[in-house]
Amino acid sequence: MNGRFSCLLACVAAFCACEEKKEIVVTETRRATTRDDAPKLFATSDERFRDARPAPVKAETPDGWLALPASQFRLLNYRFGESGMGETWVSISAGSVLENVNRWLRQFGAAPIDQDGLEKLRRVPIAGHNGTWVEAAGEYASGMGAAPKPGFALAGVVASINGSILTVKMVGPKSEVEAAKATLESFAKSLQMAD
Amino acid sequence: MENPSQPTPGATPRSLAGRIFDILSGFGLATILLLLLGLLTWFATLEQVESGLYPTLNKYFHWKSVFLIPELKGKLVPLPLPGGYWVGVVLLVNLTLGGVIRIRKGWKQAGNLISHLGIIFILVAGGVAHHFSERGNMAIREGQNRDAAEDYFEHVVEVAEIQNGAAGSIHVIRGKDLSDLSAGNSRLFRLPNLPFDLEIGGYLKNASPVAVTERAPDRGELIADGYYLMPRPDEKNAEANTAGCYARIVRRDGSKSEPVILAGASFHPFSVKHGGRLFTIDMRKRLWPMPFTVRLDEFTAQFHPGTMKPAKFISRITRIENGGEAKVTIQMNEPMRYEGLTFFQASYGPPGAAPGQKMYSVFEVVKNPADRWPEYGLYVAAFGMLVTFLTKLGSHLAGSPRKNRHV
Questions:
Q1: Helix (H) or strand (E) holding A96
Q2: B278 and B161 in contact (C-beta within 8 Å)?
Q3: Which residue on chain A is closest to B209 by alpha carbon?
Q4: Percent of the residues in chain B that have a pLDDT greater than 70, as a whole number
Q5: Do residue A26 and residue B190 have CB atoms under 8 angstroms apart?
Q6: Phi then psi for B104, rounded to 5 degrees?
């Protein structure tokens, strides 16, 4: 009898051990370390998940554009157009103005230009300086592993400002880019470099 | 040669226990086990190329892995194998029974006995390391102080009260209590010393917080403050996984807060004020406080000419403890051993640092009670082999007859 009772008790104990714990009392603690120094308090979700810092460039969002969270390579980030595929973003890039222009042209399969070709491109105001206006159209291959997008167009501005390359790039369906060019030009002009 | 499985005529037949003893202590079993270890090591070496080191080690050598089927280039190899841990256990039993208990005793066998004891010690060291060792890493910049190592894999949830801008004692919810809280499961974590508890659920082993404005959730994911957790496939290098979960603050009156995302991929903790007190809640890799502080004074990396193949990495550190300082150099194959911890030079950064750029050094920090046991075991085994060799040599030189060929 005792044996059976022990067996039953063991089965109950095993069943209880297998049951998922709905509550746990937390008893483990650790001391603060150098890794816990000066925690950033009341960080927003953008700051928590993107380490969002104030962008070195500021702008007002144009009417009809949707401001998106900044990312590592997009200081300012927007969507535009009815298709939802139009994108505009502001970046600080590496390289020279010519290298950036040619990188953009290559994304549309266009032939690269040389310094003479660059000087023939239209100049537009951007953040209180002059920048180079770039346009391209065709199949857009961003080179980021995304599938090529036919029927796309690009408009943008590249400028060298205080030793940095500031770019404003608009990519989207050709008709939507054509319609938004004037807005883009005004947007580039309105940009302000932060102190 | 004596063969225990063939009883001599007229002798009493071996009992079942005796036959089991014979099998467990036999050369045949030892040979099979060593072959299995070789096979396991070979398959694991091939499989880790595609599956990653950590999952492969777990599959082949974790104690929970009793049987396994190798997988090469995405295809199962139809060869079920026993788990490496258990092969080691049986080998330990085999060596103990055959190499210590069953072995003929005498001066001529002393060397063999010593060698077997050395190998047994190495196997025991492996078991102790498997069950009781801890591993983490410490990344530290030149001029920076660090007093905590970070676990490679375990994500924990921490709750800290902030007073005067600094964290006090930090409550830790361990990964083993979180990892089963996948979709639909939640658990209440009672925090008796704090004015609230935490309800945690929706745990994902590898996930990124994604803004809904960037990508709309397509699987009905829970949205918290404009973000949701997007599951990601397991990383090949398991240490690159960043876990995530959802938490609700459960007040003492039973009311609950809106859900909050806790993610290993977050840069800052979530802050909450409660009853005039300030708390942070965060998910991160488990931190492991050290009994001393390490300051990296200088890091130098030398490469073989014209290559990125490392020739030498040297970290000159100051170990700070109880107001005293000690200068120590840690470099490849020359770790720092102190207070039961071993600091190995593991890596460095940033890659391609320009001359004059401040660098950081990464140490692997290991707490292993059996740290040097394999080394000692090797010495014992080598000594035993030397004794065997000298015994044989002595017998040969003395011209003694070779009566006993078997052990």
A1: none
A2: yes
A3: A49
A4: 92
A5: yes
A6: -60, 140
* Contact call for residues B294 and B318 (beta carbons, < 8 A): yes
Rg, Å, chain A Cα set? 28
Q: Locate the domains of chain B by residue range.
A: 16-132+372-397, 135-146+289-367, 151-288
Q: Enumerate residues 6+ apart whose C-beta is below 8 A from B106.
A: none
B268 closest CB neighbour out of A22, A47, A68: A47
Which B residues in the span 175-234 are in contact with A, Cβ-Cβ below 8 Å?
Answer: 177, 180, 185, 187-192, 209, 211, 213-214, 224-227
- In B52-105, where does DSSP find H-type helix? 53-61, 84-94
> Which residues make beta-bridge pairs with B251?
B196
Gap from A20 CA to chain B (nearest CA, Å): 9
- Are B166 and A36 in contact (CB < 8 Å)? yes
Q: Looking at the complex, report in whole angstroms how far the Cα of residue A178 sits from the nearest Cα belonging to chain B.
A: 24
Q: What is the pLDDT of residues B353-367, one digit of tens each?
A: 655 667 789 999 999
Nearest in space to B207 (alpha carbons), one of B172, B242, B237: B242
pTM, 2 dp: 0.68
Burial B80-91 (b: 16+ CB within 10 A, else e): ebbbbbbbbbbb
Inter-chain touch A35–B169, beta carbons under 8 Å: no
Tens digits of per-residue pLDDT, B200-228? 999 999 998 988 766 677 778 889 988 99
Q: Between chains, do A41 and B293 touch, taking CB under 8 Å as contact?
A: no
Q: What is the residue-averaged pLDDT of chain B?
A: 88
Longest dimension (CA), chain A: 102
Q: With beta carbons under 8 A apart, name residues in chain B contacting A37.
A: 166
Whether A40 and B269 lie within 8 Å, measured CB to CB: yes
For residue A37, what is the nearest residue in chain B, using CA coordinates? Answer: B166
What integer is the mean pLDDT of A119-123? 94
Q: Do A24 and B227 touch (CB under 8 A)?
A: no
How far is it, in rounded angstroms, from Cα B293 to Cα B321? 6
pLDDT reported for residue A88 = 95
From residue B50, alpha-carbon distances to B44, B47, B74, B85 in Å are 10, 6, 8, 22
The identity of residue B244, as a single letter, is: G
Interatomic CA distance for residues B54 and B51, integer angstroms: 8
In CATH, the architecture of A56-193 is Sandwich (2.60)
Say what the ipTM of the complex is: 0.75
